[in-house]
Amino acid sequence: MTWLALAYSSTATQPMSAVEIGQLLLKARMFNASVGVSGVLLHDSRQFLQYLEGPPDAVERVWQRVSASPRHQQLTVLMREPTETRLFADWQMGCLEAPASLLQRLANEQWRIAMAVAERRQPLSPALALLRQFAQGVQREALGKNSGSPLIL
User: Which segments constitute the BLUF domain (predicted)?
Assistant: First the structure.
């Protein structure tokens, strides 16, 4: 099956509290699960970077909801590519708090042709490698601590 992968960055119109992000995530997870979309959201309460993957029509529906939200500004699509591989298939929708420096670095990294490289089992593009490395590192850390952590799967 061919999936669609979409990554974008945005800035919140106002900083969001952990409670507000949790409420937003709950609604997004319910919708995303209903249409078969998975991925990960990185944030620092003001800056966001989200990677979505799933059926093309479903990913586009999620993107339409995100881009129509008044909570976002400066939305930038970093990547929108077909893929045969889901990189976060086991993540219903991960949510990770990330330093602003990482979010900025990811927004500036090379995303183009990322999925084609991943499917040939070659090294991931710099952007996808960094995203995956950060997500897996936080996941390992959270599992090791087994206590309250920023990881939400």
Answer: 3-94
pLDDT of residue 117: 52
Say if residues 40 and 76 touch (Cβ distance below 8 Å).
no
Distance CA 86, CA 39 (A): 9
**Tokens (6 digits) for 107:** 């927004």
Q: Are strands 47-54 and 38-43 parallel, antiparallel or unpaired?
A: antiparallel
Phi, psi of 109 (to 5 degrees): -75, 170
The full set of domain ranges for the chain reads 3-145
22's tokens: 């949790």
How far, in Å, CA of 45 to CA of 118, rounded? 30
Q: What is the pTM of this model?
A: 0.78
Q: Are 125 and 114 in contact (CB under 8 A)?
A: yes
| CA–CA distance, 95 with 42 (Å, rounded to integer) | 6
Distance CA 12, CA 1 (A): 34
Cα angle for residues 69, 32, 23 (degrees, 5° grid):
60
Q: Per residue in 58-102, pLDDT tens?
A: 999 999 999 999 998 999 999 998 888 888 887 777 888 888 898
Provide the pLDDT for residue 121. 57
pLDDT exceeds cutoff 80 at 111: no
